[in-house]
Amino acid sequence: MFWSVGVFAMATGVLLGLLFAMYRSLPALDKLEEYRPNVVTRIADRNGQVFHELYREKRFWVRYQDIPEVLRNAIVAVEDDQFFGHKGVRLASILRALIADIRHLSLAQGGSTITQQLTKVLFLTPEKSLSRKIKEALLAVELEKRYTKKEILEFYCNQIFLGSGAYGVEAASRIYFGKSVGELGLAEAALLAGLPQAPSRYSPLKNPTAAMTRRATVLSRMREVGYIDKETELAAVEEPLRLADISGQGPSAMHFLELIRAGLLETFGESGLYKHGLKVTTTLDIGMQDAAEKAVAIGLAIINEQEEKAGVRHDGVEAQAGLVVMDVRTGEVLAMVGSSDFSLSQFNHVTMALRQPGSAFKPFVYLAALERGYTPASVVVDSPVSFPRSDGPGFWKPRNYSNKFYGPVTLRKALENSLNVSTIKLLHEIGEGPVINVAQRLGITSALPANLSLALGASEVTLLEMTAAYATLANKGLYTPPSYIKSVVDSQGTVMEIMAPEVREAVTPEVAYVLTNMLKGVVENGTGQKAKIPGRHIAGKTGTTSENRDAWFIGYTADIAAGVWVGFDDNRALSSRQTGGRAAGPIWAAFMKEALKGMPSHDFPPPKAVVAHLIDRETGLLANKWCSDSVTEVFVAGMEPGEFCQPQAMDGKNGF
Amino acid sequence: MEQKKKMGIDYKLLRETAQMSVEDFARDLKVEPDLVKAWETGGAVPDAMTQKRIFALVKKIAERGQ
Predict the structure, then answer these.
(1) Which of A154, A232, A311, A518 is the most exposed place for a label (fewest CB within 10 A)?
(2) Domain limits at A333?
(3) SS in 3 state form for A123-143?
(4) Mean pLDDT throughout A492-506?
(5) Is A359 assigned a catalytic role?
(6) Which of A246, A278, A299 represents a domain boundary (last residue)?
(7) CB A639 within 8 A of CB A375
(8) Contact A404 B66 (CB under 8 A)
(9) Residue A655 maps to a domain
């Protein structure tokens, strides 16, 4: 007897000692005051429409009073029907679970109150051990001393994992039912309340039948606890599952989003991005993004079919495309499609792909020429020409796409018809330096080697660089770097960052206008006619590289600039029909037609120091009675031709 | 803004591209072969009327089997 009492006293002492030691090692509950849950960062378009969310844990914090009573009751009924009565733990439940565990030689049984479950997810590891269960109980008691039942239930409702990436009832409600938690009915609330036990097994998305069965269990518990009557229970059990329609959602803008995410991560770090519930207003226009994604999808489907028939896609590899749209005044990126499908190719063909621009580079040659006193009426003779090869013996004899020569042509005609020989001769006359310089002023940062192949766009650039350069022409010569974010505000409404465009003059407004006028001719009369849109004033340029490896079209109105590239990632050639005008032009036009709907049409306004004169179309001289074919041409004031047509100069019938 | 001297016509290359002998080229342009040789070496420049004939020839090159 004496020994028995002694052993019991000793065992009790050891147990109390262990409990005390455990109590001392408990994590500080102060953590709850400092606790900042991971909150979703919302990404909105330029009009404030949220189109995406960035999160580690998808969570929207919702206050106790905003959680509908029906949901609170459902959770309490199924998880812990004595919640409002106990002090954190229920001894009866713990003992029942303990006996069951001993019987099955495991630690699988739950029996945890809502408070215990909360302490487990907030402070402890998910391991199943006796010491963890004891700590959970001790912490639950402490938690109940510090916080009200409402506060604990609010924490629980916002903290629990409910499957499909949803943390907390609000995120789950939006994911499964497409509505806020305040709009939930009884059956929906019961379904959510049933998820914490096994979010994946009871997921209505993955296992609707299991979810319905679990929902019935929750409804039954609600009736047993007294929250609902039998009739209400049966009506809710009979309700069909009505889930959120996740098909036919808006544009994905995934490549754009990835740029945003990377930028925010660099500025705010991991914690800032995923914990502060940022509201990021981007430059994107959801309507334009939608039009851009549709134009690329339809355009690529047509091209892939044509390429399959032509035998180019014998191995099933699909052509790729990039499309980017900018506001010409601010440089803000309004839409971006980085590849045919982000899930298949995360490579961004707008910002990452370095490709030869082909003739889309030619405007820079003409711009440099205009700056050096040439005019659209200046004449260059398109005739055979040869240059010693810089990369070996022999001569380089450039040819035009048509394999023809055109004799004397005005710069306007040479650009409209994208004549290689004329442009190379022009580049040879003005030198590579001024062309590289003007391209760099327009924002081209990729390396541009100084050789004559520059005229044919043999140096690799990105679609974004090219589109920003063309946007500069639309913006009266003012260059604005591309931007993606307008403002960043944290969850408290504090403005963290506001982006202001940096503008600088790249070329004079007069020169920009004259080149724009020439590029309008490309669309109206030249290689860019596939991009023509009736009633719209459009300037643009095609680009096709050797063997049709790249097809480009970059064009602009007075308000927006857009660039399209089409090609294969493995650099194989597109079929012979896929020129810039035929492959990229229609995608560009399809996008623009949709994007410009409802926008007023206005022409590019001429600066004061630009004048118009009637000139002879062939010779570029000022027109008079001797000219049979005259046309109005624009000039930077003071650069107009000084001579008039001569009688012999226009006589085309004498002997040939 | 100063304009550079325009790049001229390479008459020899033009003739070769057209796959013509000096004599054929001269006959087509109604001039003496020696004058063609002078253009090719830079010793002379075609007059305005001959230049117009040359330009017409340039435009026909593609049709001559390029």
Answers:
(1) A311
(2) 35-62+250-355+462-598
(3) HCCCCCCHHHHHHHHHHHHHH
(4) 84
(5) yes
(6) A246
(7) yes
(8) yes
(9) no
